[in-house]
Design goal:
Blueprint (H helix, E strand, L loop, with lengths): L5 H20 L2 E3 L2 H11 L1 H13 L2 H6 L5 E10 L5 E5 L10 E5 L4 E14 L1 H68 L5 H35 L7 E3 L3 H6 L12 H22 L4 E14 L8 E13 L7 H68 L4 H41 L2
Parallel strand pairs: 1-6
Antiparallel strand pairs: 2-5, 3-4, 5-7, 7-8
Helix pairs in contact: 3-5, 5-6, 5-8, 5-9, 5-10, 8-9, 9-10
Length: 446
């Protein structure tokens, strides 16, 4: 070993420590699901699109209500009559021969007009109902966006807990691999000394290799899930590490009741009933007449020369009422009313089904969370016991009382308990993910 002076060694060690700190300093550490969701809300492109869609839907009621206000239109025309219209008048009206007709042309070749036209709906029940329907439809679209956002949050929560689950599975696989590999190394020495038959040695070796393959598979799954989670939250080029602890999540798994009325699915079903009712009333109002107030003022210029500068001009002002009443449209209105009424009844029945579904989901979630937590808590000591059994089996096998079959049987029992533990942990995390998102939705929309 070459001689290195103490100051130089300390300087080198300091440089290495500083370089490690600079690398880790670039990583963003997310320690809980709340932090993951907050990061996703601020960075995920999918959420940014929904935010723009929410803002767009807020303008829909104002656009629909604009039809209730007075409208003012300015217009202008310029006409060149290449051939003036011809009218036939009795000749005797202009001093001609009785029984004959005389051709008379009215108007001038060039005509121009500038004017303003105003209108105001005075009585239009169908329009009023349509404005209310459009407002309800906009609220339904908003709740649909909230429902999509909730599903997106649930997917993030599931993926986050799935990552923690695979990391826990990776730890178990790593422990099994090291124990199996230690026993294999010992059996290899015994086999090389000629004190062990080939078949038992091959079985122990294959078990160690299988443990190594399981470790690689778990690492692959953990990397894939992490990549999926980074994509969901919009990590981009940011270096992010997730440092949630499973034991903390297990001890914090408590059910808190949320109100069904705060969920987007329930709010959307309520709005669907109200919108269907408004649509039915809107179709019924289509039988009523419509009354509009109109006003028009324009200036008209007439001349037979192309230049209208010195031509005669006339001003015209008109104020009046316009009444429209569709008395018969081939039974179309009646069929639309019946269809809208059936849509209303369907929406009410769907609201009942939605409440039943959400209530059943809440009850199942409470049961699943409680039972899964009990199972996971019991597995803590049980897994330690099976791990210790495998250690003792390895020692006894090395000393001679146990054969290879008994050793591998103890290992299989340990693996089965690991699988049962991971299944219970997966159920617990799934329940926690759904509960966390619903509680967050309730806190935002109490």
């Amino acid at each position: 070993m070459p001689n290195i002076s103490l100051p130089r060694f300390l300087l080198t060690l300091s440089v290495l420590c500083l370089s490690c700190l600079s690398v880790h300093g670039q990583d963003l550490i997310l320690q809980s699901l709340e932090q993951v969701l907050l990061f996703a809300k601020e960075n995920a492109p999918e959420q940014q699109i929904r935010n723009w869609q929410k803002e767009r839907e807020q303008y829909a009621p104002s656009i629909s209500s604009a039809e209730l206000f007075p409208s003012l239109r300015a217009y202008g025309t310029w006409d060149n009559y290449l051939q003036l219209p011809v009218q036939l008048l009795p000749s005797e009206a202009v001093g001609g021969e009785p029984g004959t007709f005389t051709e008379i042309r009215f108007g001038t070749q060039f005509q121009a007009s500038l004017g303003l036209e105003a209108s105001l709906p005075l009585f239009d029940p169908e329009l009023w109902r349509r404005v209310k329907s459009d407002r309800l439809r906009a609220q339904m679209n908003l709740q649909e966006l909230y429902s999509q956002e909730q599903a997106w949050r649930e997917e993030i929560a599931r993926t986050y807990f799935q990552l923690l689950l695979y990391e826990e599975s990776l730890k178990l696989a790593d422990t099994r691999f090291h124990l199996s590999d230690s026993i294999y190394r010992l059996s290899e020495l015994i086999y090389e000394e000629g004190e062990m038959e080939p078949l038992p040695f091959q079985r122990i070796k294959s078990s160690a290799l299988a443990a190594k393959q399981a470790l690689i598979r778990q690492q692959k799954q953990a990397d894939l899930v992490k990549s999926s989670l980074l994509s969901l939250i919009g990590a981009g080029d940011k270096q992010i590490r997730f440092s949630g602890k499973i034991q903390d999540l297990i001890t914090q798994a408590e059910f808190s009741t949320y109100e069904l009325s705060s969920l987007p699915d329930w709010k959307r079903s309520e709005l669907a009933v109200a919108w269907s009712e408004q649509s039915w009333k809107q179709n019924r109002a289509g039988h009523l007449p419509k009354l509009n107030a109109t006003g028009r003022f324009y200036q008209q210029t007439l001349a037979n020369q192309f230049s209208l500068r010195d031509a005669s001009s006339f001003e015209v002002g008109v104020v009046g009422l316009s009444l429209n009443w569709n008395l018969f449209q081939g039974n179309l209105k009646r069929l639309k009313i019946k269809t809208a009424y059936l849509d209303w009844q369907i929406a009410k029945e769907r609201q009942i089904l939605t409440r039943q579904m959400l209530t059943q989901e809440q009850q199942n979630l409470e049961t699943e969370l409680g039972k899964s937590q009990q199972l996971v808590n019991e597995f803590g000591k049980l897994l330690q016991l099976f791990e210790e059994n495998y250690r003792l089996a390895g020692i006894q096998w090395a000393e001679g009382p146990l054969n290879a079959d008994e050793l591998l049987q103890v290992e299989r029992e340990w693996i089965e308990q690991q699988q049962e533990y991971l299944i219970a942990l997966a159920d617990l995390f799934t329940s926690q993910a759904l509960l966390a998102i619903r509680n967050q939705t309730y806190s935002e929309n109490p």
